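User: Hey, quick favor. My workstation is busy. Could you predict this chain's structure for me?
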Amino acid sequence: MFRFHSSTSWNAPLMGWAILWCFSVVVSASAADPMHSELWGSHGEKWSADSRLPDFSYAGYQRGEKPLPTLMPSCSVKDFGAIGDGSTDDTRAFQQAIEQSAGKTILVPQGVYVITDFLNIGTTGTSLKGEGSGQSILKFPKPLNEIKPNWGATTSGQRTSNYSWSGGFITIRGSTSNQLLTEVAADAKRSEQSLRVVDVANLRVGDDIRLQLSDTKQQSLARYLYANDPGPMENLGSRASVSFTTRITKVDVDRQRIEFDRPLRTDVLSEWKPQIFSVSGGVEEVGVEGLGFQFPDLPYGGHFTELGYNAMAMSGVRNCWARDLRIYNADSGLFISGSNITLSGIEFDSDRPIERSRKATGHHGITLGGQDNLLIGFDFRTRFMHDITVSHSSAGNVAADGKGLDLCFDHHRYAPHANLFTNIDLGEGSRMFQSGGGEALGRHSASWETFWGIRARQPQSWPKGWGPDMMNFVGLPTREAAVTEPSGRWFEPIDVDRLQPANLYQAQLAKRLKMTQ
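Assistant: No problem, here it is.
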């Protein structure tokens, strides 16, 4: 505490300034004090497995438990005849390198490589490593639909290329295992960590398994995922599903019961035909990193005119990654469908003339399909119709530590649920909830979607009609009052600059790893 005595030599104005300065320091220190959500607390002490806040800590490569590998190339595309001069067609050299180097890392040295066909990777461990996204450039002069026509139609019947919403020049494709291990014999509640099964004979401690739930003709699973507020879903049919991967920690032969290492993300009911599958045998440990993708700077024609200037697609794969990629003038960037995939350091830019009605230069930036995938450290320096997309019952995916000019979190219907968006700067913030998807396919978002620590230059509001009340909004700019109903709407407008933790995913991961050490 400061004390001023009458004998001081300070004059009155100086003393007044000093008092004001001290008061400002106290106020500033107070303003900088961290604030915590009632859903988490400071270190997770307010969280429990049955919370409305899911456990997102299993997202990413190897469930976040291991860092991304350091790739050591054993060959180069130049060993197979690639030139990299920006004019020679190097497609065949790349294809031969991939075909003849299964399970190896292939170096893409500095240069500009013209590619005019698909580069297909379908073997575990086969990776491409460039020397940096600004040094090793793949140049694509024509679109996928010109190479391999693939015409289709929108849900409204408009003719368009299927590459409008799928496919990529680099295609990494595996298959989801159909090896049925057993069926579930009894219902279970969300947050439980055990299941009674029909037969434990094929189940082993340490095995990763996939629990699969399928909807009924009455759409009871979809209604559950939408917290009984699905909106119109006449066109959804029984396509809603749940896929959940976990690791067995105990097999009880006498009771025909297994225990596993993470809480169930949803209820498990017999009417949803719960089955347990193996996850082994697919394509894993594939990395693509240090590459630039360069497409022509042709004008963007708008929604559903895209012919496939698309960078990359992953499907049916697990424990794969893409790192340090710069994608330039794309129709779409990355279509991801699999599990435990990490996308790190992805940048988008464009010189294409902007499509005026939506102010966009492409269709889909990054689509996170599947489960438990991680997008981290991204930068959108241009706008897509849909910047970051979740759809088709995708769950457990995380987008974190990114920014953009005016980002949107596209929820493309079909019951995406329990995905996290955390520590993200939207930029302008004029279209956070701009979303697509056909008519009568359910609301854009289903339950437990979580938006945590979202910055924007414009205030944000609860998106009415966009999803059910069972969503979580914590830390975002707004003029709306807080609403924190345990079984209803959760809108907790904490100052994002004071919100701790800023990145919920990393806080949950750190807590879990500390508990298991």
